Every structure is written in structure tokens, then in C-alpha cells.
Amino acid sequence: MVQLHVKKGDESQFLYEVSTDSLIESALNEITVIYNGRLKVSRICMEMEELATHGPMLPPNIIGLTDEQVTELKLVDEWADKCVPSGGWTFNKDDIGRRNGRQPNEKMQLILRKTVEEAKAIVSKKQAQAGVPVTRKMVKEAIDLLRGAVTIVYPMGLPPHDAIQEEFENTEDLSGTQASLEVIEPSMASLWFSGKEMNRTKKICDYLGRNDKTRAVVKLQKIGQGAPSREPVMTEAQQKEWMLHAYRKQEELKKLEQDNDDQYHNSSWADSRSLKRSFQGLGNVSWK
């Protein structure tokens, strides 16, 4: 299996393993699904942090309104008493006005936050550093973990308009948000290798050969954005190391220039009597 290091721009995303005989189109579709799946996990985790702090989301017609406006318009959150967290809740007002402020107790908060960390770790970019490929199954596992935690804390479920519930049901509307700019539709995705766009109708081996131990950097982006930036010759860490080496070399040269030409006379190897003293056993005598 060939290992592809998928990047978006200059940012590392994940490792993906694929057969050399696989079509580029098949690999690209799978890579795009994993990429979008990781974004979904990230969005759910972000909302679950808010859920643990401020409870479920308010209905769309109440979001953003002040308490006075809600009272004046006689609006009611009909889901507040239906979606109650296990173990009860305490009020923690959401200053943004998105959630109802019914914060779960500390035990339930811990379940939500611990699961968020576990899900993030499964699809983390650190997996690439550890040499662990990310699969569609791993993305599904992360989402199932998050779903399970929400079910434990909210046995009656979340309101259908809650962003977390919409993500679980794949009914989320990202239009007009920053998240919508990050998502890439499989039909609008392109894969680049070595500064060239990979043709969907060709196979992996047409670009990387048939060596199953090959590892290559490929870049994912939307069609029509042009060629992505090339990989730098040196990584940031390598560049810092090189600069440090050059600085040390420069300091050594400065020191040598400041030394006198006859300073070597002070060296033990330049002492004509050192051999005689060594035979007499007087090599390292300390006089006090």
C-alpha cells in the first residue's frame, strides 16, 4: 500500500493508505470524505464544549434575543423541559444568546469533555506525525463516541434544531459560515502531486510507480484554485537548525581570527619536554 501524506495548503492533515492500482478518482473521493469527516468531528466537538457549559441550543426564533425581547414577544422555549440533562442542571447564562444556560452537573460535563478529547485524538493531525493513517472507519468511530456521550448526558435527546443534533443527522446548514468555505465536495476536489494535478482517470501507479513502500506528499484543494504552493526545501525545524549551525560556525571563525598566531606554543603538544616528563612519570604533577 502506498502512503499519501495529505495536506491542505502547507498544513498537514492526515496519512492515507491506498493501493497502487487504485484509480485517482476513487482515492480522491475517499480522501475528501475523510477530510470533510474530520471537519465534522471538529465542529461537533466545538459545539459539545458549549453544550457542557451552557446547555442545549435555543429555538431559532429566540437565538440572539435579550430576555426582555423574549418576554415582550411572548416566546417560549418548548424544548427546555423536554431535553433535561441526567443529574439535573444549574443555570449558566450564555452571553451570546445561543444556548438556554441549563448547564449539566460536573459529572456529566466531565463525560462530555473527556469524550471530546478522545474523539479529537482519533482524527488528530498528530496521527500523521505518529505514522498512523486515518480511515473513514476512524472518523465514524469518533462521531459514534460523541453521539454516545450526548445520549448518556441527554437520554431524551437534544432539540432537533441543536447544531449537534443536526450534525449527527447530517442535516446541518453551513451556508454563510466559515465552516462552509472549508468543506470540499468530492466532485469539486482535486489532488496535486509534485506541482501537477493528478488526472482522475489515471491510477496511483501512473504517478508514484508500483513500489508499495512509497510515501508521497499530495495536496487537496478545490478545482479552479490553481496550483498549490510548492513544498519548501527545508522544514521550519531544519531551517532553524541550519541557522544555528551557521551562527556557531561564524562565532568560531571570529574567535580564531582574534587568537594570536603563536598561541599554539601554549599547547601541550608543542612542549619539547613533554615526552621526557611523561617517561619520568611527571606528566600530571600538581605543585602546591
From TrEMBL:
Keyword annotations for this protein, in alphabetical order, are: Cell projection, Cilium, Flagellum
Coiled-coil annotated residue ranges, if any = none
Provide one Gene Ontology biological process annotation.
regulation of cilium movement
**Any keyword Acetylation?**
no
Where exactly are the transmembrane stretches of this chain? none
Q: State if DNA repair is listed as a keyword.
A: no
- Please state the span of the N-terminal signal peptide per the UniProt entry: none
Highest taxon above the source species = Eukaryota
- Family indicated by similarity: Belongs to the CFAP298 family.
Q: What is this protein called?
A: Cilia- and flagella-associated protein 298-A isoform X3
Task: Give the taxonomic lineage as stored in the record.
Answer: Eukaryota, Metazoa, Ecdysozoa, Arthropoda, Hexapoda
